[in-house]
């Protein structure tokens, strides 16, 4: 029996990396019974003669969208144009990651397509995200980004067409498939079809399939406020205040002042989706 990491999955075929060697393995029936199937990122025990995954070692973390485990960071790759920036989708992804206790980093792409004025507007918005403690990089700041990623297992997530595979190609000097977005529909073409971890320099980057919408309705109403991390800094009259219809709410008092308006609006939209 040997220990390795799953770096790729295509239906029931898993690519497992054991001591720098790659093995194509299947998972045994017991996982179907346990209702817990192996996913990319899992550390597993494998039987190398029969090419079977025998056990999944305890996970440090796990997330369903994108489906991956044991990551140190997740880069939310976000285009400022083509497809147009959606702060709503960005806030939703942040919720999803904070809820699953995975550290998010925002990576902005396609700044080359912006006018000076647009760039200024976006700089103000993203300074807010920095202020609340989320690291923000442009996809042109490769050296800075690489230093930040050093030693880590990192997943890239984001809308289809945002530039995830392009970024990995640039950093790793490799050649993952990329494609222009559909100009007619204004969105990506779901070019990447499976999750795969690539060893690059002294870190690991997982490319994942992009999406166009994200479902967070598994989060409970009382839990949602904790995924908007800056809300914890304010005092409300009621301990269980969800910052919605309550009186004397410290969060509502700061909306448009200390709290970015779009953040609070997105919070309310998500809360209503959970009802
Ligand atoms: N102008 C510009 N184009 C970019 C940039 N980054 C990526 N692109 C282009 O955007 C398109 C989509 O890039 P991909 O890397 O395929 O996007 P993806 O996020 O991997 O998309 P999926 O695999 O569908 O999830 C490609 O045509 C890239 O060349 C950028 O910073 N500027
Ligand atoms: Mg891709
Ligand atoms: Zn409140």
How would you describe what is shown here?
The structure is a single chain. By secondary structure, this protein is of the alpha/beta class. The protein folds into 3 domains: 2-58, Nucleic acid-binding proteins (OB fold (Dihydrolipoamide Acetyltransferase, E2P)), CATH 2.40.50; 63-207, 3-Layer(aba) Sandwich (Rossmann fold), CATH 3.40.50; 221-273, Ribonucleotide Reductase Protein R1, domain 1 (Orthogonal Bundle), CATH 1.10.40. 28% of the residues lie in helices and 25% in strands. It has 8 helices and 13 strands. It has helices spanning 30-34, 87-99, 116-131, 142-149, 164-172, 221-227, 250-254, 261-273; strands spanning 2-10, 13-18, 21-27, 43-47, 52-56, 62-63, 68-69, 73-79, 104-109, 135-138, 153-157, 196-200, 203-207. The strands form 3 sheets. The protein has a 6-stranded mixed β-sheet, sandwiched between helices. Helix 2 links the parallel strand 8 (73-79) and strand 9 (104-109). Helix 2 (87-99) packs across helix 8 (261-273). The longest helix has 16 residues, at 116-131. The structure holds guanosine-5'-triphosphate, magnesium ion and zinc ion. Guanosine-5'-triphosphate binds at residues 109-110, 112-113, 139, 158, 160-166, 178-181, 188-192, 209-210.
């Amino acid at each position: 029996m040997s220990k390795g990491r799953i770096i790729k999955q295509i239906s029931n075929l898993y690519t497992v990396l054991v001591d720098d060697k790659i093995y194509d393995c299947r998972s045994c029936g017991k996982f179907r019974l346990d209702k817990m199937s192996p996913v990319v990122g899992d550390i597993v025990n494998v039987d190398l003669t029969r090419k079977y995954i025998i056990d999944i070692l305890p996970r440090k973390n796990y997330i369903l969208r994108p489906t991956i485990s044991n990551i140190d960071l997740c880069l939310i790759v976000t285009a400022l144009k083509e497809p147009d920036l959606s702060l709503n989708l960005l806030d939703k992804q942040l919720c999803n990651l904070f809820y699953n206790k995975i550290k998010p980093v925002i990576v902005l792409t396609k700044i080359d397509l912006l006018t000076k004025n647009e760039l200024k507007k976006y700089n103000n918005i993203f300074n807010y995200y920095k202020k609340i403690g989320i690291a923000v990089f442009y996809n042109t700041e490769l050296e800075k980004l690489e230093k930040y990623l050093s030693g880590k297992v990192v997943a890239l997530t984001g809308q289809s067409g945002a530039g995830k595979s392009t970024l990995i190609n640039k950093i790793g000097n490799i050649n993952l498939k990329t494609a222009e977005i559909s100009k007619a529909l204004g969105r990506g073409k779901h070019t990447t079809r499976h999750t795969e971890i690539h060893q690059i320099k002294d870190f690991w980057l997982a490319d994942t399939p992009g999406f166009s919408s994200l479902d967070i309705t598994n989060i409970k109403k009382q839990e949602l406020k904790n995924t908007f991390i800056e809300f914890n800094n304010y005092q409300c009259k009621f301990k269980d205040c969800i910052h919605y219809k309550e009186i004397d709410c410290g969060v509502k008092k700061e909306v448009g002042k200390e709290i970015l308006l779009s953040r609070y609006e997105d919070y309310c939209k998500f809360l209503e989706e959970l009802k």
